[in-house]
Amino acid sequence: MSESTTGAKIVVVLLFVLIGLPPGLCSMVGMFAAMTARNQSDAALYAVPSLIGLAIFGGTLWLLITTWRSKSP
């Protein structure tokens, strides 16, 4: 595995906070709205963007974990 520097770790944390957390938090609210929707079309309207936000959150979280697990010089 590649070694990560302190600068790379800072960049990945900033990416996670600025790009990963907002869609992750919004996807939780969207999933709650989808579960409490009155009909199936409203549930799909909330669920699909929520799943996309969850994927963005998961990808940035994976990047954060792999960067911090690699050995620093």
Your description of this structure?
This protein is mostly helical. It has one domain (6-69). The chain contains two helices and no strands. The protein has helices at residues 6-35, 40-69. The longest helix is centred in the first third of the chain and has 30 residues, at 6-35. It is rod-shaped. The mean pLDDT is 89.
**What's the overall geometry?**
rod-shaped
Strand content: under 5%
How much is the average pLDDT? 89
Order of helices and strands: HH
Continuous helix count: 2
Radius of gyration using CA atoms only: 16 Å
Give a brief description:
By secondary structure, the chain is an all-alpha fold. It is built from two helices and no strands. Helix 1 runs antiparallel to helix 2 (about 40-70).
List the helices and strands and how they pair.
Elements: H1 6-35, H2 40-69
Helix pairs in contact: 1-2
Which key features would you list for this structure?
73 residues, mainly alpha, 2 helices
